[in-house]
Amino acid sequence: PLVGKGGKRTRYKYPLSAIHVLKAHGRLSLESNLVDGGFAQNIKRREMNITKERVRRIIDAGARVVLTTKGVDVLCMKYFVEAGIVCARRCDREDLKRLAKATGGKVVTTMADMEGNEAFDPDCLGKCDAVREVRVGDGEMLYVHGCKEHGASTIVLRGANEYMLDEMDRALHDALCVVKRMLESGTLVPGGGAAEAALSVRLDEVADGVGSREQMVIREYADALLVIPKTLAVNAAKDASELVAKLRAAHARGQRGDGEGEDASSKYAGLDLMDGTIRDNLAAGVVEPAISKIKSLRFATEAAITILRIDDRIILNDSKGLAGAARQ
After folding, report:
1. Which end of the chain has fewer surrounding CB within 10 Å, N or C?
2. Which of 152, 137, 134 is closest to 95 using CA atoms?
3. Which pTM value belongs to this model?
4. Are 129 and 146 within 8 A, CB to CB?
């Protein structure tokens, strides 16, 4: 409606403003069409504006690195590049959680607040000293240095092939489990067969004071403990008999000594498989978690007791033997 003469409103009978014209290139002019009885608007342009506003909120919050599990549109990447921001797409969700925990940040899934508006909280940003992209093997890896919380670390294994890497991964996992057990229990024992040899010597002394047939059981248990140092020596291509004899003699001196001089260090004597000698493994840093050693001995003892409790056994012949017995 328009204001006409005398201040009266006049309405056009055929208003041109009721016709909404949209322009879209890429087609022939003959393909222009009329949306009969409907309405169309330029949704794509509005989507671009919304995306630009969201990117601008992230940039204004002070972000320097953006990581996402989804893809990044070329338009968004353009805004990030112009602002000098590193943007990585299609990251693993678990990696983002670990990184957020290490840097003190949060994984943001939406910008909507409680009132329905969109905003980006700067407190969700993590902190680190540097982020670098390094080429490793056939791909690139994103290194994050100097994380704020220092709650996570990454070990990059390099090897000639997948089999070697898998073996290295298993060995590293075992070593990390040993360290974890030791930190949880707070106690450790010397390694290299030291604990088994000391226990074997002690059980032999106990067996000498037992005047019944239980003495045989105690001695057999003491001999069974020496399987560990013997196996270690054999795997290292050393003379197992000589090394185990020297190891037992060292622990015998340590248990009978007054706790001074050489006898004091003999209590921690273990195998040095590199040189094929006996040394103080506690001073050399070769240790094991005490809880793992105790559980191993406990489970082995329970297994032996279970087997000894079996007084009957059933032997099944093969199918040929059963068939021959049936014919007879």
Report:
1. C
2. 152
3. 0.54
4. yes
